Structures are given as C-alpha cells and as structure tokens.
Amino acid sequence: MTATVHELRRTLRAAVAGGRAVGTFVKLADPDAIELAAAAGFDFAVVDLEHSTLADTDALALVRHAQVCGLPALVRVPAVDAPLVNRLLEAGAAGVQLSMLARLDQVHALAAATRFAPHGRRSVSMANRVAGFGATTVAEFLAREAADPPVLVGQIETVDTDPVAELIAGLDVCFVGTTDLGVDLGPDAPADALPTAVAALAGHAEAAAVAFGGWAPAVADAERLGLGSARYLVVGSDLQILAAGLRAAAAE
Q1: Residue 47: partners with Cβ closer than 8 Å, 6 or more residues away
Q2: Which of 31, 100, 107, 237 is 20 to 30 A distant from 161 in Cα terms?
Q3: Which domains does the chain have, with CATH numbers?
Q4: Residue 204 is a catalytic residue
Q5: Could you read off the pLDDT of 235-250 as tens digits, one per residue?
C-alpha cells in the first residue's frame, strides 16, 4: 500500500532526528529521476524550482510520483508563492525548502502558506489527493495535517541576515547553501572562512533545537565544509551525478 504523505513526513522527521537523512536535488522532469533516487537509497529528494528548467507542472508531477515511490519529496522555491505552495502540498509534497532566507517576514510567509488556521492562512480544499478527494472529513484532514505538517526548511546563503535564532525558530531544518555562502564571503576570504561560518550556523541551530543541514557535492565532502553535524544533508543533484557518470564513461 502506498505511504501517505503524512507517513512520509513522519518518516523523514524521524530520520533527521535519529541521525542523518541524505537526499539529492532533482532538476530533471523525467519521473525516472525520482525512481532512481528512491532505488539508490536516498532518504528524500528536493525538487528544485530555483536552479533548474522545471516548470510548476513538472514539480507537481514529480512530487506525486515521489509519494507513489515512497520517497519524501520537498520542493525548493526561491520565494513564497502561496497558491503554488498550496498546490504542491495538495499534490503530495512532503515539505518546502525556501532558499535565500534572510528576513523574518519570509519565515512568517512560509508558515502562513503551509499551515491552516489558526496557525496560518493556507486555503482548505478537499478536492485533492492528499485529502483523499473528499473521502475524509474536513476535521479528519485538518487533524492529520496538524499531527504531521509539511516539513519546513530554511536555506541561509549569506552572512547578512536577521538574527539567526529568530530566523530559524519554528523551522524543521536550518539549511546552509554552502556554495552561495562561500561566494558571499568573497574570493579573498581565508580558507577556513566557509567552514567557520557553517559551524556558527550549526551552533545557532543546536541552540534553537532545530535540525541542521546543508549541501555538499558528496557525503565525503560534508566534514570539510563544516557539515559534519548535518542531519539533513543534500548531496549533488541528478544532473550533477549524471554529468559525472557521462564524463567518466567518455574518458574510458
């Protein structure tokens, strides 16, 4: 029997709390990318609506397919578009990863778009797959959403942010975009500047009792980037892994 999105959210939260969950970015519209990620043993996938050619309809199809495959799929968005976020959640997204997080109003908008009243302003509909197309009552659906709400990930990419402790409060994961943060630190920054900045964010996350996460090219790179304590680790992407494989094959 296919796991419900609420079960997948619970599974992902348990994996993050119990050690380390490892996922990858999905940038290709083909559902095979999702199936391959699931078959490879990734704990989750992040459908990328920021750095990819994916259209909104592609993302909707990918999160639907991910649920069928039993793989929790979040969607990375560059900004909070409440109607789009609602459609993604109704299609089966396990959560939302908001990039370029730097201001408290962004966190408030994310919470409002992903939580029903009285904790948010998300619009309610029963005519969607997560609500069973009306097979359950509104009260039952709202109870399930309250018990296992969408996983919220805030992606910090710059040292110029609102107070981090306030910024990440209420999130499930404080995620550091290591590539962007490295660029933000500047080309003349000392070699240890990036892992030092990452470690500082990890400390803020620990103090706030929020899981820490980040991106690395591969699991083996996590330690040198300061992500040794990351419980939510995104490694590479389907495109990056495909490109590396193609280059290796061409060089043989």
Answers
A1: 25, 26, 54, 59, 62, 63, 66, 73, 74, 75, 76, 93
A2: 237
A3: 5-150+217-251 (3.20.20.60)
A4: no
A5: 999 999 999 999 999 9
